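The protein record minuted underneath.
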Amino acid sequence: MNWLLVALGAAVGAPLRHLTDRAVRARHDSAFPWGTLAVNVVGSFALGLLTGVASARAHLLLGTGLCGALTTYSTFSYETLKLYEGGAKGYAVLNVAGSLTAGLGAVWLGTAAAGLL
């Protein structure tokens, strides 16, 4: 039954990632992958919050399933490589540094917020 909770969460998270990325790209005409950064930061915050307040079953559905499908390390890695190979080395470094800093900050804020609930 646990696998079904993960699958249901992922069925929402993956399309949400796609739609969010498209919406962000439509608003930002830039080589920088703002959409991937956005979903990774939001997913990090949500996972931090869920870790502090969710039951084990809710964590499977929302943490592992939804956040796992919403966030994307592989796309982040690929986009960083493409930036670097395309000559946008500054953007590549900014993507790595910004993603790590914002993601860690977001998960910390999420766990802090969970502590307040």
